[in-house]
Amino acid sequence: MPLTPPSIVRIPIAPAGMINAFLICQDPCYILVDSGLPGTEDKVARALERLGKSYSDISLIIITHAHIDHAGNAALLSQHSGAPILAHEADLPFYLGEKKMTFCATGWFGHAFKLTGAIQKPYQPFTPDILLTGDQSYCLKEYGIEGYVRPTTGHTCGSISVIIEDKVALVGDLISSGILLGGILFKGKAKRPPFEENPQAVGMALEALTDTGVTEFHMGHGGPLQRREVRRHARMLRSLKQ
Ligand SMILES: [Zn+2]
Ligand SMILES: [Zn+2]
Fold first, then answer.
1. How many angstroms is it from 81 CA to the middle of ligand 1?
2. H or E, element range at 207
3. Distance from the alpha carbon of residue 106 to the mean position of ligand 2, in angstroms
4. Of 36, 29, 37, nearest to 4 (Cα)?
5. Taking Cα atoms as reference points, which of 110, 113, 111, 92 lies closest to residue 101?
6. 130: nearest Cα among 63, 71, 77
7. What's the confidence (pLDDT) of residue 109?
8. How much is the pLDDT for 101?
9. Would you place residue 212 in the very low, low, confident or very high pLDDT band (cuts 50, 70, 90)?
10. How far is the CA of 1 from the centre of ligand 2 (A)?
11. Residue 202: nearest ligand to its CA?
12. 3-class secondary-structure state, position 211
């Protein structure tokens, strides 16, 4: 294993931390975590360019869950890069475009956002090349990275997280920070994302991650957050009525 830890590069899909994708960089491997919205491939290309890289340097695309702001451009980026897509089977019907997603709003913003129809828009369907099932994890050793992908159900059934060296986690929408969609202001303060299927499961998944020693959390909206704030948020979620 390389001596230097991989670097995590945030890709601003939308400004002010409102929507993030990430690159996990351990030269010569570059893993893209989440694809961003349809039509935002130039943001990914620019992030790669800043590293002196291009689409063909992407080794793997990990999709944390099936919402459009995370999975919406996966098909196109896989075509451009030739990289396989890894995702969880529980969200497969949505990746295939076979089933419409349901959205459990967590507050007024979620309800208002749902009315715009933006989150429910269909996107180019795809079949993940690597499909996790049940509690199955996936080791990233073959990419030169001391880390793994593990199921963290709750935000959606098929939500997954990437854990690097047991210290850093990329958790998609298990947790957000900031205001409205996330980001903008108060980025150090955890909040629920606009939609969440099972808050108790999310609370358990976040607690389990902090129990493994993870101290730094990167998210799709806002962030990053430190362990203490994540623990506080997880406890609050677990105390919510079913
Ligand atoms: Zn989401
Ligand atoms: Zn999201």
1. 24
2. helix 199-211
3. 13
4. 29
5. 92
6. 63
7. 80
8. 86
9. very high
10. 32
11. 1
12. helix
Residue 190 neighbours by CB under 8 Å, 6+ apart? 175, 176, 177, 225, 229, 230, 232, 233
Residue 226 is which amino acid? Q
The tokens 């929507």 sit on which residue?
Answer: 19
What gap in Å lies between CA 44 and CA 34, rounded to an integer? 10
| Mean per-residue pLDDT of the chain | 94
Residues constituting the chain: 242
E strand segments, 110-230: 130-132, 138-139, 147-151, 160-164, 168-170, 176-177, 190-191, 216-218, 225-226
The residues facing 131 across adjacent strands are 87
Contact 83, 58 (CB under 8 A): yes
pLDDT, one tens digit per residue, over 152-189 is 999 999 999 999 999 999 999 999 998 778 877 778 89
State the distance from the centre of ligand 1 to the C-alpha of 210, rounded, in angstroms: 21
**pTM summary value:** 0.95
pLDDT at 2: 61
Helix (H) / strand (E) containing 88? strand 85-88
Structure tokens of 75? 């098909």
Q: Taking a C-beta distance cutoff of 8 angstroms, is the pair 83, 32 a contact? A: yes
Q: What is the pLDDT of residue 103?
A: 82
Distance (angstroms) between ligand 2 centre and the Cα of 3 equals: 33
Residues 6+ apart with CB under 8 A from 238: 200, 203, 204, 207
Please state, in angstroms and rounded to a whole number, the distance separating the CA atoms of residues 1 and 41.
31
Domains of the chain, each with CATH number or no CATH: 7-239 (3.60.15.10)
- The percent of residues above 90 in pLDDT, for the chain, comes to 81
The token duo for 128 is: 């993940």
